[in-house]
Fold each of these.
Amino acid sequence: MVSNEPTLTTETSFVYAIGQIEHRFPNLGLEKEYAQVVGRSETAGFRDRQVTQKVLAERENRYLARQLCWVLRVEGLDTYLLQPRDPMDFEMLIEALSRPYSSEDDVDVVIGLRGPIAPPGMCNGLTVPIVFFDQIYSFDKDTLIKAMPKPQKIEAEQFEGDARDLFSRVVQLADNAGATDEHRALNYLAVRYPEIYHETSRQFIENASLSAVDVRPSRLSGSRKILDVIFSYTHRQSDILEKRFVRVDVTDMFPFLVTKLSPFYER
């Protein structure tokens, strides 16, 4: 276990990242130990991912989970090494493996504190920041989208396709590792605020494109850090521009909505 966990200060860097969690072996010795444990387990008919989840979920094998490297990959890149702030929360990492097979549609949302760069010996030479997490949400895109309330005047198939498109655009924004306030606000909205999907789908039906997504400090910011997230839609024929925005408070580890989606006017 890493001992240099960051403390909560005004300079603390929070993380609200969207990616996929993978496990890796930091050394050959642990890999051989894992293989011996698997050899003693009943795993016939299981896929490799299911085998790992089954083995690590057993209490007597929890020592393996504590010594594995847990990597969050964002857009296919190794981005963070994950460590729970509470040792009991290794359960969340193991649960992230509970899906029957790995898919590009897998979504793991990691919320926590960004710590130092991992030393080369921690995970077989991988030197990325450590995130000490407090919460992990694991699901797939289809589950997220199907759980959203459907707009009454939009067909379900149309809405689900539009929502998938918007979700992909948010998580693929340049350098969105969920470590800046702007990206934390966007990632929070992507997984917790269905109204941005409703509005984007409505705009598509009315022949408008999502032309920009901007994040800027709100004029309401004072003692708290509040951001305006602005969605710009441009009509494909008339070039008329419409903007909608939502305010998000990112002062603390867990962002929250300040005002609902509404028209935005430049001042």
Note: The two ends are 51 Å apart (CA to CA).
Amino acid sequence: MGIVAGVAMCLIAVTSLLIRKVRYEVWYLAHVTFYVLIVICVGMHRPKISTHSVIVAIFVGALWFSDRLIRFAKLTFFSIGNSATITPLPNGGTRIVLARCPVRTEPGAHCFLWIPKVRGFETHPFTVASVDNGRMSFVVAAYDGFTRDLHNYALNNPGAQLRASIDGPYGTVPNFAKYDKIVLIAGGSGGSFTFGIATNTIRKLATDSKSVIEFVWVVREHGIYSFQAQRIRDLMLNRIYFVVQR
């Protein structure tokens, strides 16, 4: 059992170096499988309670199982009466608007998104781009795997409403409204995060605030800029100095 656990640890390291960037879903499945195998084998390697090793293995396994159970419960709760409207954007982007979201969700946090029509047994983390009237939106760039399949579905079914749920939000965002000058810098699809930060900061600023916000966004292609053009115009109307560099 000790040998099996040791081999599993080595395989986690090897797959992380060779597979993670090429086939993320394969790596993730292998990572979880090897992790569970390691915990079980470590416990069976020293099975006597007096050695304390099995106690540690049971404790670690209980933590992991509890985490998965809580995530499943949250996904189930937010799937009730929830749906995602997907819209294709230029240059491989996809806008996702959820009908329901947690009360205290703020732009800049991230949630694990579940859309079973695209991938039934996968959740993927995305940054919250905006929250308006209880509706939460994401802007996702298509690469491979889930994001590629999502964009292809949006191209074939623009405006489709799909069953969806989320697990989150996770992460905290500082209150930028208390500063006199804020400089936001983003590149490519990372603009989704900083657009949300800018919009949320404007809402928190007092009407007589003298704070200045500068937003620098670097993009490779004009198509990426075009699907955020309206948001840029809205932000510029709120005293934000905008620089887009190509």
Note: The mean pLDDT is 82.
Amino acid sequence: MLDGEGSLARLEAELREQGWTVRRGWTAAEGERRRVCAGVVADEADARAALLAAARGAGVVAHVTAGRDVLEWFFEDLRRCGPVDYLRGDSGSLPVDDEQRRLLALLREGASLGEAAERLHISRRTADRRLAAARRALGVKTTAEAIAKLGV
């Protein structure tokens, strides 16, 4: 994720200098090598198209403007395709929201992730994504570290 269109253009130029083929948009042929798809992820359709390009083997450089709901699952699913790095124009971390705080509080109290999800009226998968996003935002690797750092 990049902090703006200017950063996207600079990164595209840098990748081209390194011998990569960079194309705007999310079209990638299966198994195509040394190809990077670049563009803006403004909504769920863009996110799905970018994920498909990554699953087909292309690198993905995205300026993400979509809302937090799309951002969370996009990054979680993108991580399943390979390593993910991101740059931000603000504080450098994603904020921990109230639902993530409640989720961490329930886990601290001894609830399983499934029980916590049920109490928050969200799916187990959504709870898992929110927990992963909270750990990333806090810069920790484990849920225990997240609970300790957040002090819930």
Note: The radius of gyration is 17 Å.
Amino acid sequence: MRICIIAHNAYGAMTGEKSGHIGGVERQTSLLATWLMRRGHSVSVITWGNDNPDDELHSGIKIIKLCRAEEGFPVVRFAYPRSYSLLSALMRANADLYFHNCAEDITGIIALFCKIRKRPFIYSVASDIDCLASIPTLDWHERVLYKYGIRNASAIFTQTKHQKKLLSANFLLESTRIPMPATPKKTLLGINTEERRQIKKVIFVGRIHPIKRINIFLELAQRCKEYVFEVIGPFDMEPSEIEKILEQIEKLPNLEYLGRVDVTQMHNVYIQSSLLCCTSEYEGFPNTFLEAWGYGIPVISTFDPDNLIVKEELGVSASTLDELEAGIRTVLHSPDKYRALSENAITYVEKNHNGEKIYEHMEKEFLRLNKSY
């Protein structure tokens, strides 16, 4: 089957390029595309263009280029060159099925294209906010196109039970829940749980964007001077805001900013850390949670997907700064609690987020939809 995945920011994740935005969605796109290709499918990925406007082939996967993200004049560039280049790319893909993740205006354009061409279109929810009628991250015209897109999708995938309920309540749409697949990790042999707890290092992993509320993490570092704190990830903010945050970091002797760390080096980050801390306002199902749990690292978080942190005892769910601080101190001060949370985390990921099984589930859905057209 010919499968096309539309992921504007996935060029770096697909090609190994160090620049550009690489988040959980982009990482998952790369893993899914590679798995499908190895299963014998013809896979193409549509991404923003770069200095080389030609389509490329990387490890058996075709990278189809759009215009550059910054190309064109404000306002009118939505029509040309963005929409024009997207339609051209969709045509060049000539796929049997199209797959898109994240709430965007292009969701509607892809849905319309597939409707005209009589091809199945699958939309995959990336965040809880994608399931809200207001969708505050989008402008009014983007919301119109997005809502058209999900209402005309052949199928919708959600990551959690909560997203499934939100989508039904706010849009009267049914969806198929497919858990996030855990990303492959290196062996855990030789990693001692107690030794890792004794490191007493709390990490923040992800792009530094206002919704991630990095200021709360910095405040935790200020309050917990006896622990080591690390921030891993690129900035996705206005330059003036970046400068303010860097100034704050400079004043914290127990906090280090590592910036972007290549995915191949994240193993070393996790095995030398004690806790993962999430301070986000909202999320979908963070890829970083699965990565941390896969290494037996408890998560202290303001966001708890499907209340799993509480139900499965995978860390501490907190609502306030005080609760975050208390959670960090409680877990790091108790060897027995830390060991129990760590063991629960590894067991949970292996049981519920086996990548091979989840990709097989997705493939079955792809094949089923393709047969119905």
Note: The CA atoms of residues 66 and 85 lie 5 Å apart.
